[in-house]
């Protein structure tokens, strides 16, 4: 009886491990970090994960990228902001979901970052204000919520490398 329990436990562990490996993002492989520089914005992104060009961003000048399996998306773009408006004022005027729906919100004098859940996905938006506050340099990410831990370091690196193109 103990041997059967051990075998069942081993099979369960192998099955869970295999399922996790199948659904983990391509981040487990070499991400192939590259610099994207266009529309006044520069950012490092994992080109082996976001390997599918999805064309121009529809809302503002920029580009969209997707994962080969279509489960994750990245947009890099620049938006005009009213001069002398802080990131906090921008959020106050433009946030279209209740603040209570946000899972993460950080607003500083030079940037804002917000994140939340939508269906089975996590969205993350970060915009850095240009020094003259007339432009916002932004990223928008969507990825499966079930893979949050695997995506955390990727989102952090993308976010921290976001800069105005100079």
Pick out its properties.
alpha+beta; disordered N terminus; Protein Transport Mog1p, Chain A; 40% strand; 166 residues; 3 helices
How would you concisely characterize the structure shown here?
The protein has 166 residues and is α+β, with helices and mostly antiparallel strands. The protein is 27% helix and 40% strand.
Draw up the topology in text:
Blueprint: H1 2-23, E1 33-38, E2 41-46, E3 52-56, E4 62-66, E5 73-80, H2 87-94, E6 102-108, E7 111-118, E8 121-129, E9 135-144, H3 148-161, E10 163-164
Antiparallel strand pairs: 1-2, 2-10, 3-4, 4-5, 5-9, 6-7, 7-8, 8-9
Describe this structure in words.
27% of the residues lie in helices and 40% in strands. The protein is of the alpha+beta class. It has a single domain (2-164), classed as Protein Transport Mog1p, Chain A, CATH 3.40.1000. The strands form two sheets. The chain has a seven-stranded antiparallel β-sheet, with helices on both faces. It is globular. The termini are far apart. The model is unreliable at 1-27 (pLDDT under 50).
């Amino acid at each position: 009886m103990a041997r059967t329990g051990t075998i069942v436990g081993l099979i369960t562990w192998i099955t869970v491990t295999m399922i996790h490996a199948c659904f983990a993002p391509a981040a487990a492989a070499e991400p192939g970090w590259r610099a994207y520089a266009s529309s006044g914005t520069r950012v490092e992104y994992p080109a082996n994960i976001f390997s599918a060009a999805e064309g121009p961003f529809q809302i503002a000048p920029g580009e969209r990228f997707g994962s080969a399996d279509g489960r994750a998306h990245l947009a890099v773009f620049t938006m005009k902001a009213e001069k002398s408006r802080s990131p906090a004022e921008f959020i106050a005027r433009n946030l279209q979901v209740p603040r209570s729906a946000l899972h993460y919100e950080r607003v500083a004098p030079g940037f804002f970052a917000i994140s939340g859940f939508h269906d089975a996905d996590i969205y993350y938006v970060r915009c850095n204000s240009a020094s003259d506050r007339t432009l916002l340099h932004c990223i928008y990410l969507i990825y499966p919520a079930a893979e949050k831990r695997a995506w955390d370091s990727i989102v952090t690196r993308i976010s921290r490398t976001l800069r105005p193109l100079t």
